[in-house]
Each structure stands twice: as structure tokens, then as C-alpha cells.
Design goal:
This protein is mostly helical. The chain has helices at residues 2-19, 23-34, 37-60, 63-68, 70-92, 101-104, 113-125, 129-141, 148-173, 176-205. The longest helix has 30 residues, at 176-205. The radius of gyration is 18 Å and the shape is globular. The model is unreliable at 97-107 (pLDDT under 50).
Length: 209
């Protein structure tokens, strides 16, 4: 019962965090729409690998360095802002989602498996708010005297929630019906996605600890 009392609130908070729309949501949905279900799932895997980094850092106390050091925090913030704006510009000029029969016959080169995974990793690590979130999780919700075995159980639960949610997104947005809509209105959807990326980059640039 004590274990359940510890795990359930953490699971609820983490599920709420991953469901909240943000860069991770955007890259999974964009890749699933523009390329394929496989690329979307590989992107979800990359985001989960990044979560491994954050969770391991949280257990070892390294997230405190990112969140409490102004220099490190601002460095990650600047790099993250540049990355998100770059992703936004790429999406704005992306040729996926065709509006004419001629354009529909033009091949769209999908990212390689490695690029898809790396895109998920970089997107998830580019936001220093991830460090703040996991610092909160490991300092406010997980007692310092939690046994190592229980911490590993918590880590597994967090990773399962993350991969489960982003995989669900990939499956949903790569369905034939949704991708068909993207093919018909792809240009406008790319404008919307690109604008959201750039907006998130600007929002990140103004983030303070």
C-alpha cells in the first residue's frame, strides 16, 4: 500500500506532464504525419531515450546542476531556442503534404532511422525545463531515502508512460485517415506546425528559472 501511495501520484504527475502539448508532441505528430508510422515510433523511442538521460541525471543529482547553475541553464536555453526555431523553419519549408497531383508524385525523402531517433533525443533534451521538471520530481515527490530498487521501479514506470504516450500519438497520427487529411492540407498544416515550433522557441528564450 505504501508503494502504491508513492507510485500513483508520481504516475499521475508524469502522465499530465507528457500529455501537455510541447516540442515532444510536435515532433512525434509531425514525423508521423509527414513520413510514416515507423518514423513516428522511432521518434518516440528517441524521446524515451532522452527521458533515460533526465531520469538518470535526476537520480544522480545532475539535474540540480542544470537547474541551479545560471550559466548551464542559459547555455541549454540558448541551444534549445536555436534548435526549436531551426525545426520551425524546416517545417515551414517542408515539402511533405501535397496540394497538387504533380506535387503528390514527387518523392519525399524521410529521415533515416538514426535521424528519427536523434531528432527525438535532441528535441527532448533541448528544453532546460525538463531539468526543472525532473528536479521537482526527485526532490519533492521521491523521498531521499527511497530504496534503489524502488527508484528503478519508478524509473521504469516513468519510461513506460513516456513511450506509451508518444507511441500512441505516432499510431494515431500515422493512420490513413489523418495522413490523408495532411496530404490534402499539408501546406497549411506545415505553416501551423512551423509557427508552433518557432513560438515554442521564442517562449523558451524568455524562460527563467
Amino acid at each position: 500500500m505504501d508503494l502504491l501511495a508513492l507510485l500513483l501520484p508520481i504516475a499521475f504527475v508524469h502522465l499530465s506532464a507528457v500529455i501537455s502539448p510541447g516540442p515532444n508532441f510536435l515532433i512525434v505528430t509531425r514525423n508521423s504525419l509527414a513520413y510514416s508510422r515507423r518514423i513516428g515510433l522511432l521518434t518516440a523511442r528517441g524521446i524515451t531515450l532522452a527521458a533515460v538521460v533526465w531520469i538518470s541525471s535526476g537520480m544522480l543529482g545532475f539535474v540540480a546542476i542544470v537547474s541551479q547553475s545560471a550559466l548551464v541553464f542559459n547555455l541549454v536555453k540558448v541551444l534549445g531556442t536555436v534548435y526549436l526555431v531551426w525545426m520551425g523553419l524546416q517545417t515551414l519549408f517542408h515539402k511533405g503534404g501535397h496540394t497538387t497531383p504533380e506535387a503528390a508524385s514527387a518523392p519525399v525523402t524521410p529521415p533515416t532511422e538514426r535521424q528519427a531517433v536523434l531528432g527525438g533525443v535532441l528535441t527532448a533534451l533541448s528544453n532546460p525545463k525538463g531539468a526543472l521538471y525532473f528536479l521537482f520530481l526527485f526532490t519533492s515527490m521521491i523521498p531521499a531515502d527511497t530504496p534503489p530498487a524502488t527508484k528503478l521501479l519508478i524509473a521504469g514506470m516513468l519510461l513506460t508512460i513516456s513511450f506509451g504516450w508518444y507511441s500512441t500519438l505516432a499510431l494515431a497520427f500515422s493512420s490513413a485517415r489523418i495522413r490523408g487529411l495532411y496530404q490534402r492540407a499539408g501546406r497549411w498544416m506545415n505553416v501551423a506546425f512551423g509557427s508552433l515550433w518557432i513560438g515554442l522557441g521564442i517562449k523558451l528564450a524568455t524562460t527563467t528559472r
